[in-house]
Design goal:
By secondary structure, this protein is mainly alpha-helical. The chain has two domains: 54 residues, no CATH class; 66 residues, no CATH class. The protein is built from eight helices and no strands. Helix 1 packs antiparallel against helix 2 and helix 1 runs antiparallel to helix 7.
């Protein structure tokens, strides 16, 4: 199993990967992905990747369009809402008791969102939280159990 620093790096990379693709993400994330795959011993997988190094390229535009289609807006509704509460409520509603439970759990662990307007159960926030737990070696059996109860692990 990966050490806590490596686990933190994986969570942090996944959090960055789930953000809307900006020009800077191409420059920043490809080397991180390369280093991460190399540290995991996945050189074969790394050889199969090609950097999308031109922000004005068709591939970059396609990435932004696909992100929007999957996570923000699409004909007929969002295909893959990046909010845990949508999947945990019978109605599929956002901002429900699951959102508040996640926010409360963050506070119990000593963490708060940098921006109060952010939705606590957005996948990026959940992955960043897990990265912080792993970085601080706080992934205890008790916390793992609580995360499972909240369907976060």
């Amino acid at each position: 199993m990966a050490g806590h620093k490596q686990l933190s790096a994986i969570y942090r990379f996944l959090a960055r990967a789930m953000r809307y693709p900006e020009k800077s993400c191409l420059k920043d994330n490809f080397p991180r992905l390369s280093n991460l795959l190399e540290s995991l011993g996945w050189q074969a997988e790394m050889r199969g990747l090609q950097p999308c190094d031109a922000p004005a390229s068709k591939a970059f535009e396609d990435l932004q369009v696909e992100y929007t289609r999957l996570f923000i807006n699409s004909l007929g509704g969002v295909l893959a809402p990046p909010y845990g509460s949508v999947y945990l409520s019978k109605s599929g509603a956002l901002f429900n008791e699951a959102t508040e439970a996640v926010k409360k759990f963050y506070h119990q662990q000593g963490f708060t969102l940098a921006d109060n307007r952010e939705v606590a159960d957005h996948i990026v926030n959940e992955l960043e939280f897990l990265a912080l737990l792993a970085a601080n070696n706080m992934m205890t059996v008790e916390i793992s159990g609580r995360l499972k109860k909240l369907n976060l692990a």
